[in-house]
Amino acid sequence: MDENDDVQNSDNQLDMQARGESRGDRARKAQAAREADRKDKAAAKLRENLMRRKSQSRARRAGDADETQGLPAAGTGGAASTAAKSDESS
Which of 29, 36, 41, 43 has its CA 20 to 30 A from that of 8? Predict the structure, then answer.
């Protein structure tokens, strides 16, 4: 590095300090923004879950069918369990 590079680097550091924002400040702001985003997403998922559970509860009280989303309950006695039993007996 020559003398001009040192002067430019020190000028850049002085500019950042004059603005009141160092590398650590920017990193903390970015981390806070990521954490706030993560909390917002978690809150949205919790609201979604609560709404789904409330609608399931209402449906059960009304005697309506439970319209679940996702995979069916395990152990329903499908073809896979029958095939496994026949393989074991051979």
Answer: 29
How far is 17 from 25, CA to CA, in rounded Å?
11
pLDDT reported for residue 61: 83
Backbone angles phi, psi at 72, to 5 degrees: -70, 165
Distance CA(16)–CA(26), nearest Å, equals 11
Given a cut of 70, whether residue 38 has pLDDT beyond it is yes
Task: Kindly state the tokens that stand for 77.
Answer: 């006695």
State the Cα–Cα distance between residues 48 and 72, nearest whole angstrom: 20
Is the pTM here over 0.90, yes or no?
no
Q: pLDDT value at position 71?
A: 66
Distance from C-alpha of 31 to C-alpha of 23, rounded to nearest angstrom? 12
Q: Which residue has the tokens 């990521």?
A: 34
Q: How far is CA 28 from the centre of its chain?
A: 20
